[in-house]
Task: inverse folding
């Protein structure tokens, strides 16, 4: 285990009493509690952490926060493996295992880095110009190699063992960002009594203050602010939480990393929690990110943002280099220079500006820092770590560079090209950004209603101004929610220091190659390996729109979404096009601000809980009786009840046969059930069904079909008249929800004058169909208070009575074509009802049957179901033209008269059977005139079964003019299996077409 | 996320509601067999970029159909009234 | 114009990549054209290309309010397929796929058509039957299709959920090998470059504000860059068809809805074909950079907002994890959305409008990308010959009035349900 050579003995916000060991690329290292993986690696002198996306160039840690473009690692092993984790955001835990990615065979020696030699061939958009030959489809050959070469980390290979949760939250004021302005905003709003949620991405509150030397004035202020906030009951502080998206109506998507900082999540905790937060006001105190300057080899390990250098030395007590060059175009980088110097490094500053302020100048001199003003770092040299930088005289106004003046040896180059406020969330709302040329930054243009921007996100320069701005915006947000401002707004407990203004910046984004020096690649987007040349090339080819530029070069499209590159790309493009930055425009920001795991967004809706499971009230009983279940929509229904050793085919044939010969019972609880009551109920049903329901006598049921307004069949079922103004409607299982919604729609929008109430009672009633020649005897043995005699209770009769002690509705209706009863009982009595019938069954040779047998029976009878009602068929197509009342209009009655729906050539429902011998037919076969197996045929096979009653296979299908083609032999074509089966067209009513069994 | 102020239940997330589409064109009278009028009502839409009158059902709440005026660009909701109190020809407030 | 090839790439690289020519000219609008195509997406550019190349049109302009390919062309999940069942759709989409297969060579621009195959999973016997019907129709029309069993699906894509915890177990799938993905931007750029080569003017930053009408006939467009006269004006502005057509006084069987798409961070290859999840409306593929590209349902209300919302984000991610549980720890890096012309039957419109001089190509629902070449092919034919090509003769505006809907899904006149 190596020493932490880069660790300072004192200072920092790490806990030296809590050492942690971790492994990177198989080597063991040590860090401390409070480290990130990145700071711990730097403490151990590890700078090379990854290889770049396209050219496999060596890359090091570049930043200290979310903006890190290079240090992507694979974290953890097995089911918890996570690729592409940003090392600067990983809190170190004991036993952490990480590995570098996208290199072979090793990080130190990566074979693919040979590509770098040919980088000009692989310039932006190269793939649009080649890989097209020598044969058509050649791309498929090249693609294999390109796919393997691309990608970053390894995909997960094992199931994720962790849980995820979803939470809902509400607040008056959402404060995004826990830095000085966010804390101040939360304080101001919290003191006024508003319900405040403050969200901080990191583990600790304080933001940029945490990167300042420990023990200063700001620490005292931070402690008091956090202390006060923790004491306010109306303020909720959420750390390790990212606001990843700003959605309509001030609704925000948040990701809380509950357990990512632990080796495994706590046993009672999810790994991550996704929050949907609804706010009334939002304050963006999201801070700003430093951006690089673009120069030759600016991607070498050891090149780092100045703010990151400051963060490492002050927050983590890590000195990332002993010999440091700071390269800047503005004053803010001097803080890093001074702090590193104070930590013991040799420091020189290269500033593109000709002169700096007197105060700063004095501080630099006093610290013993060499200043090269009016100069630029033109390129960095080194192989896997920067070894020296070439400094040239540079005219920042004209952008002109002189020959190399000196080479400064160094092992760390800190760069500051200015700052970019973090306004992605505003951008997600479509808010325009405006270019502020004094500060060389994009700031909020128009701020959408309900949003405020505070602190450095608003371009405020120093801690004092940021705190004041937070106070102001937080107070105003609370006031907008109706809370009176607190009595002491904006009073700060401790003096806060002034800081350098942002206005002294020289807006230099790129340093040209010095005269006579060879070519070196200059990177703008590190993560996608997009360079200065790539932008030039894209523009020269006409990809001038900023969106074209982005797409052609892939700038800003990597997982970091251009956090360090977007602005520079914009500035460079503007310079090349000779247009002001404002005229070039920005690309659109899209959620998420930081990548969010699919698991977190899916939440608990995973595995068997992906969708709710609906079960009938008798489900457990079926399970105990050995039913095999099938999923139909959300329902789990008994498919068949196999006897030992029976196949599905044997089981359903036996079950269906029993129904025809003795009696069977089937659970039909999933049928949609709708209670229709009111004086206009009859009129209402007349309007929604194609056939009449006002003429239906009390105590009778009728089969009804509903159309969509466009004249296509939507659903069917039976409706019973229980009383003058009371109907009981049933729908198909699949159609239940849609029919209910449609009925409510009609009653509340089209016909609010009708006095009708509809209520869904699907879940309130258990339903069992008892079918077969012995069904009456069976029911009669159990129901004493209803006269079951055929004359007293004929087919389509409806009675109410008791089965044992259970109150039941008895409907003498039939889907199977047998004498049959549907028995409805309160859902809580379902099991008792099933048992009562079942117990009485042996004397009548009763069998339970599942929906496979149910299907067989209805096909034999020619009844339509889901395969026939497919959203394209008319009444006439299904042979139900007689169901359309001519005496009254109904939904769909007008548009069903359109020519296309009346076309005589439309396919009509028929029965089908093999024309030679008994061959099984296949659903989905296309029906064709014999030998003409092309195009779309003349129809198709919709439902098939083996018919126990007929002892052969039968099918339903649709055939053009089918009703007039009875007896014809046509082909059922199934090219997917190379099958052609001649079939005979016959009536769809295979069994008992006269209905004698029903009426027996 | 749309937040719809149901007149019966208060402001709720859009996921509690089911969209019912354009409310501008109600159905012709049922007895009207004119195919052009029905075609127009069932198939043709103004589809405005801006203010849109539409129906939503508070499916997982009071199950009432609501007449909502909403902007199709900003998604801002201007008004919500029970559909039974609004007629398609009525003004933006549904009255 | 520089011919693209590996040789050119190397030659130019040796010259420090100087001397590449523009992919297309940024044209200034002229006073008039024979054909003005409104909309510089894939469809509009393809239409212009085929008008010039196949029909010899010498005076064609494409006008685009923003930048070319900036609408749905660059916002989709790049799936290309021809697994359609309804007569009227089947052969049209197959023609489109055939044009895709030739496109890179035709345009000398690599659109990266990757015919890696598409799997449509089935989760019930009824879905298997429906897949069989679809696959049989495809085969009868000369389109490749295979019906796979559960085991065959598992062999092809083992990372799908074949565990006991799958809420909707996979029973099988319909497979089209020739389906796949292509590079969306390349289609717009490739057609633009090709059209430019044939003399088409591509005018960006030019928004249509109205139509020039004379005696009830459209004779040009009024734009933010002045009036442009035209013998014929073709609209190819899917997403905004209603909005633009209304300027000519037309109301259409179209609603505009949002469709979102998502991309994950890039990882090494893990998914080698396109998968459509039959238990939900969800589809996923892995792009050449390694990111998984996913899409699902419409947001479900009329919108021109081009920004999706959380309910569909949640639904899509739940779908993703249900289909491929291994995706759980992968992260979404980008969410975006496009605005879709949703028609009343889910099928498109390529047709003369009721107003002389005005032609409409729109209503692409969310199937527009795969249709790009055939749409251009047929729309160019319709514009040039003043009558539809046989492949688009059913994509009329009056099919709703006549009762000839092309309802692939059976969803009826509920456009957000297609």
Result:
């Amino acid at each position: 285990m190596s020493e932490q050579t880069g660790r300072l003995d004192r200072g920092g916000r790490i806990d030296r009493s809590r050492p942690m060991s971790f492994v990177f690329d198989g080597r063991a290292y040590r860090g401390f509690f409070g480290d990130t993986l990145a700071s711990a690696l730097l403490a151990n002198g590890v700078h090379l952490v990854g290889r770049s996306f396209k050219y496999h160039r060596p890359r090091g840690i570049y930043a200290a926060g979310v903006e890190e473009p290079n240090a992507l690692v694979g974290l953890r092993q097995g089911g918890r493996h996570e690729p592409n984790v940003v090392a600067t955001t990983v809190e170190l835990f004991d036993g952490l295992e990480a590995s570098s990615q996208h290199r072979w065979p090793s990080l130190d020696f990566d074979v693919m880095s040979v590509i770098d030699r040919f980088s000009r061939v692989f310039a932006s958009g190269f793939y649009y110009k080649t890989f097209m030959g020598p044969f058509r489809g050649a791309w498929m050959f090249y693609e294999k190699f390109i796919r393997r070469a691309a990608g970053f980390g390894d995909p997960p290979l094992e199931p994720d063992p962790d849980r995820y949760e979803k939470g809902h939250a509400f607040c008056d004021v959402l404060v995004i960002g826990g830095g000085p302005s966010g804390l101040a905003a939360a304080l101001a709003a919290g003191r006024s009594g508003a319900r405040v949620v403050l969200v901080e991405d990191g583990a600790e509150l304080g933001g940029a203050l945490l990167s300042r030397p420990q023990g200063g004035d700001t620490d005292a202020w931070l402690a008091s602010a956090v202390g006060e906030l923790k004491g306010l009951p109306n303020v909720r502080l959420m750390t390790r939480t990212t606001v990843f998206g700003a959605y309509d109506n001030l609704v925000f998507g948040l990701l809380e990393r509950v357990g990512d900082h632990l080796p495994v999540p706590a046993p009672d905790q999810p790994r991550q929690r996704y929050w949907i937060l609804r706010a009334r006001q939002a304050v963006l105190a999201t801070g700003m990110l430093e951006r690089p300057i673009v120069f030759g080899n600016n991607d070498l390990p050891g090149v780092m943002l100045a703010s990151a250098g400051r963060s490492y030395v002050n927050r983590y007590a890590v000195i990332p280099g002993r010999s440091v060059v700071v390269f800047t175009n503005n004053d803010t980088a001097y803080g890093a220079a001074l702090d590193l110097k104070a930590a013991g490094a040799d420091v020189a500053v290269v500033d593109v500006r000709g002169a700096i302020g007197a105060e700063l100048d004095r501080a630099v001199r006093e610290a013993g820092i060499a200043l090269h003003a009016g100069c630029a770092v033109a390129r960095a040299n080194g192989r896997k770590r920067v070894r020296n930088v070439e400094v040239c005289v540079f005219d920042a106004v004209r952008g002109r560079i002189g020959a190399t003046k000196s080479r400064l040896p160094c092992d760390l180059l800190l760069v500051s090209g200015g700052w970019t406020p973090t306004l992605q969330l505003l951008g997600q709302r479509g808010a325009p950004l405006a270019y502020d040329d004094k500060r060389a930054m994009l700031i909020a243009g128009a701020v959408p209603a309900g949003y405020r921007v505070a602190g450095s996100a608003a371009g405020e320069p120093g801690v004092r101004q940021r705190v004041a701005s937070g106070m102001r915006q937080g107070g105003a947000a609370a006031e907008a929610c109706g809370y009176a401002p607190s009595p002491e707004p904006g009073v700060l407990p401790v003096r806060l220091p002034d800081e350098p203004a942002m206005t002294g910046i020289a807006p230099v984004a790129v340093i040209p190659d010095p005269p006579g020096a060879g070519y070196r690649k200059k990177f703008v987007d590190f993560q996608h390996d997009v360079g200065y040349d790539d932008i030039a090339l894209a523009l020269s080819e006409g990809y001038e729109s900023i969106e074209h530029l982005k797409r052609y070069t892939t700038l800003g499209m990597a997982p970091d979404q251009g956090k360090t590159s977007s602005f520079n790309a914009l500035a460079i493009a503007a310079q090349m096009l000779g247009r002001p930055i404002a005229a070039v425009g920005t690309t659109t920001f899209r959620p998420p601000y930081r990548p969010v795991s699919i698991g977190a967004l899916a939440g608990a809706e995973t595995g068997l809980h992906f969708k709710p499971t609906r079960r009938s009230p008798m489900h457990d009983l079926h399970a105990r009786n050995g039913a095999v279940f099938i999923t139909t929509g959300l329902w789990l229904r008994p498919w068949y009840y196999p006897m030992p050793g029976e196949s599905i085919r044997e089981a359903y044939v036996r079950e269906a046969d029993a129904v025809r010969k003795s009696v069977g019972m089937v659970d039909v609880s999933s049928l949609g059930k709708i209670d229709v009551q009111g004086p206009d109920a009859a009129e209402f049903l007349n309007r929604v069904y194609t056939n009449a329901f006002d003429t239906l006598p009390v105590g009778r049921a009728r089969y009804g079909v509903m159309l969509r307004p466009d004249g296509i069949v939507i659903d069917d079922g039976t409706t019973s008249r229980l009383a003058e103004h009371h109907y009981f409607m049933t729908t198909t299982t699949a159609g239940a929800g849609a029919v209910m919604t449609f009925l409510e729609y009609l009653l509340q929008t089209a016909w609010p004058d009708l006095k009708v109430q509809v209520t869904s009672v699907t879940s309130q009633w258990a339903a069992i169909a008892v079918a077969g020649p012995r069904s009456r005897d069976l029911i009669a043995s159990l129901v004493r208070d209803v006269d079951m005699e055929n004359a007293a209770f004929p087919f389509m009769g409806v009675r109410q009575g008791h089965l044992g002690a259970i109150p039941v509705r008895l409907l003498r209706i039939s889907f199977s074509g047998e004498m049959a009863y549907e028995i409805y009982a309160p859902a809580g009595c379902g099991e008792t009802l099933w048992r009562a019938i079942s117990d009485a069954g042996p004397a009548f040779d009763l069998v339970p049957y599942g929906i496979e047998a149910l299907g067989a029976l209805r096909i034999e009878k020619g009844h339509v179901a889901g395969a026939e009602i497919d959203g394209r068929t008319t009444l006439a197509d299904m042979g139900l033209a007689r169901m359309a009342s001519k005496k009254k209009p109904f939904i769909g009655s007008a548009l069903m008269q359109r020519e296309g729906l009346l076309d005589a050539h439309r396919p009509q429902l028929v029965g089908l059977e093999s024309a030679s011998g008994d061959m099984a037919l296949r659903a989905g076969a296309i029906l064709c005139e014999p030998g003409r197996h092309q195009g779309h045929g003349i129809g198709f096979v919709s439902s098939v079964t083996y018919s126990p009653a007929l002892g052969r296979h039968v099918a339903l299908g649709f055939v053009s003019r089918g009703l007039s083609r009875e007896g014809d032999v046509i082909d059922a074509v199934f090219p997917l299996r190379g099958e052609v089966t001649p079939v005979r067209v016959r009536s769809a009513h295979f069994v008992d077409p006269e209905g004698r069994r029903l009426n027996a | 996320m749309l937040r719809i102020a149901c007149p019966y239940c208060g402001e709720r997330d859009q996921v509690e509601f089911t969209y019912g589409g354009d409310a501008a064109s109600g159905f012709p009278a049922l007895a009207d067999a004119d195919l052009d009028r029905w075609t127009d009502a069932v198939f043709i839409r103004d589809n405005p970029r801006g203010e849109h009158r539409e129906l939503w059902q508070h499916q997982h709440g009071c199950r009432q159909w609501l007449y909502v005026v909403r902007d199709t660009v900003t998604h801002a909701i201007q008004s919500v009234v029970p559909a039974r109190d609004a007629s398609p020809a009525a003004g933006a407030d549904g009255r | 114009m520089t011919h693209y090839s590996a040789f050119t790439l190397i030659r130019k690289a040796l010259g420090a990549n100087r001397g590449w020519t523009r992919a297309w000219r940024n044209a200034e609008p002229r006073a008039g054209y024979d054909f003005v195509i409104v909309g510089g997406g894939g469809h509009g550019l393809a239409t212009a290309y085929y008008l010039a190349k196949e029909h010899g049109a010498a005076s064609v302009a494409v006008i685009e309010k923003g930048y070319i390919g900036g609408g749905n062309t660059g916002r989709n999940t790049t799936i290309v397929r021809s697994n359609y069942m309804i007569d009227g759709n089947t052969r049209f989409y197959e023609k489109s796929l055939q044009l895709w297969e030739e496109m890179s060579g035709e345009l000398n621009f690599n659109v990266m058509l990757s015919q890696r195959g598409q799997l449509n999973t089935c989760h019930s016997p009824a879905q298997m039957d429906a897949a069989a019907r679809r696959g049989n129709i495809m085969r009868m029309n000369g389109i490749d299709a295979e019906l796979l069993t559960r085991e065959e699906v598992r062999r092809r894509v083992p990372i799908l959920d074949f565990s006991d915890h799958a809420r909707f177990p996979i029973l099988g799938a319909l497979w089209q090998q020739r389906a796949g993905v292509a590079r969306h931007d390349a289609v717009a750029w490739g057609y633009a470059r090709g059209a430019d080569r044939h003399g088409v003017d591509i005018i960006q930053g030019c928004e249509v504000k109205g139509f020039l009408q004379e005696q009830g006939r459209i004779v040009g467009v009024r734009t933010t860059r002045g009036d442009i006269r035209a013998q014929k004006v073709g609209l190819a502005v899917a997403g905004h068809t209603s909005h633009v057509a209304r300027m000519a006084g037309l109301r259409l069987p179209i609603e505009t809805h949002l469709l979102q798409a998502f991309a994950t961070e890039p990882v090494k290859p893990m998914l080698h074909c396109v998968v459509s999840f039959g238990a939900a409306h969800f589809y996923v593929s892995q792009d050449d950079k390694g990111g998984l590209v996913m899409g699902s349902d419409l947001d479900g209300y009329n919108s021109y907002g081009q920004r999706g919302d959380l309910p569909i984000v949640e639904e899509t991610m739940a779908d993703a994890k249900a289909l491929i549980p291994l995706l759980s720890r992968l992260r979404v890096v980008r969410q975006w959305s496009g605005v879709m012309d949703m028609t009343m039957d889910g099928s498109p419109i390529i047709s003369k409008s009721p107003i002389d001089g005005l032609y409409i190509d729109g209503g692409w629902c969310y199937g527009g990308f795969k249709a790009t070449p055939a749409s251009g092919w047929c729309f160019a034919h319709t514009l040039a010959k003043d009558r539809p090509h046989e492949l688009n003769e059913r994509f009329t505006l009056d099919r709703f009035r006549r009762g000839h809907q092309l309802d692939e899904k059976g969803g009826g006149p509920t456009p957000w349900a297609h």
Notes: Residues 157 and 223 of chain C are 50 Å apart (CA to CA). DSSP finds ten helices and 18 strands in chain C.
